């Protein structure tokens, strides 16, 4: 895994991808408290700011321990954190990682997550030297599936995943992208 001396901020036309901090707690709570953000994942909405603070601590500890890298997605125009994107489940032997992402509903459907993903994919392939990036998305999450197709991911297989927090089976579609460099 890559060791960071400084956190790698990434900048796009409309976004700043950066390390999350306590100044983001209101925006992150809004995102993590929204039930629609948990519709396709086995997660539960944060009920308190303390839960969101714990999430920030956990994410930053994982970065410090080289387990994953997660960026807060800050919209340049509004200075608001509107989502997050990460590379996790990193396998240094296979040189692979898994992409995770979420964007609040008010900012969906206008290309911002694609803008984020393309930059994170570039970072994963060209800085982290990953050979493969995988994504698991729920079969009913059509917006996510279409986003992955626009980013040139290929469908690999379907898997069923039993929920831990929610007593249901998630029908996950697995997509991957190979580093062509």
3D structure, described in words:
Strand 7 (154-162) and strand 8 form a beta hairpin. The chain has helices at 25-33, 49-64, 112-126, 142-150, and strands at 10-11, 15-18, 69-75, 80-91, 96-103, 132-138, 154-162, 169-178. It has a domain at 10-131: Aminopeptidase (3-Layer(aba) Sandwich). Helix 1 packs across helix 2. With 181 residues, it is of the alpha+beta class. The mean pLDDT is 93.
Topology:
Layout: E1 10-11, E2 15-18, H1 25-33, H2 49-64, E3 69-75, E4 80-91, E5 96-103, H3 112-126, E6 132-138, H4 142-150, E7 154-162, E8 169-178
Parallel strand pairs: 5-6
Antiparallel strand pairs: 1-2, 2-3, 3-4, 4-5, 6-8, 7-8
Helix pairs in contact: 1-2
Q: Nutshell version of this structure?
A:
The chain has about 180 residues and is of the alpha+beta class. The protein has helices at about 25-35, 50-65, 110-125, 140-150; strands at about 10, 15-20, 70-75, 80-90, 95-105, 130-140, 155-160, 170-180.
Instruction: Determine the oligomeric state from the structure.
Output: single chain
CATH architecture of the domain at 10-131: 3-Layer(aba) Sandwich
Instruction: Flag low-confidence runs.
Output: none
Tally the helices: 4
Query: What global shape is seen?
Result: globular
Proportion in β-strands: 25-35%
What is the succession of H and E elements?
Answer: EEHHEEEHEHEE
The N- to C-terminal Cα distance equals: 19 Å
Helix content: 25-40%
Largest sheet, order of strands side by side? 1-2-3-4-5-6-8-7
What's the CATH H-level homologous superfamily of the domain at 10-131?
Gcn5-related N-acetyltransferase (GNAT)
The CATH C-level class name of the domain at 10-131: Alpha Beta
Question: What structural class results from the helix and strand content?
Answer: alpha+beta
Task: Kindly report the CATH topology of the domain at 10-131.
Answer: Aminopeptidase
Biggest pleated sheet: 8 strands, mixed
């Amino acid at each position: 895994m890559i060791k960071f001396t400084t956190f790698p901020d990434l900048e796009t036309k409309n976004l700043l991808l950066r390390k999350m901090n306590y100044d983001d707690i209101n925006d992150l709570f809004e995102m993590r408290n929204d039930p629609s953000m948990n519709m396709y994942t086995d997660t539960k909405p944060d009920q308190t700011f303390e839960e969101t603070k714990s999430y920030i601590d956990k994410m930053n500890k994982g970065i410090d321990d080289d387990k994953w890298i997660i960026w807060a997605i800050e919209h340049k125009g509004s200075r608001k954190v509107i989502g997050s994107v990460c590379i996790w489940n990193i396998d240094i032997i296979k040189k692979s990682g898994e992409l995770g992402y979420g964007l609040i509903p008010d900012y969906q459907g206008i290309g911002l997550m694609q803008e984020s993903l393309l930059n994170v994919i570039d970072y994963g392939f060209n800085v982290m030297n990953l050979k493969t990036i995988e994504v698991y998305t729920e079969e009913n999450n059509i917006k996510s599936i279409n986003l992955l197709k626009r980013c040139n991911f290929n469908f690999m297989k379907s898997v069923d995943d039993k929920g831990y927090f929610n007593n249901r089976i998630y029908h996950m579609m697995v997509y991957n992208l190979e580093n062509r460099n």
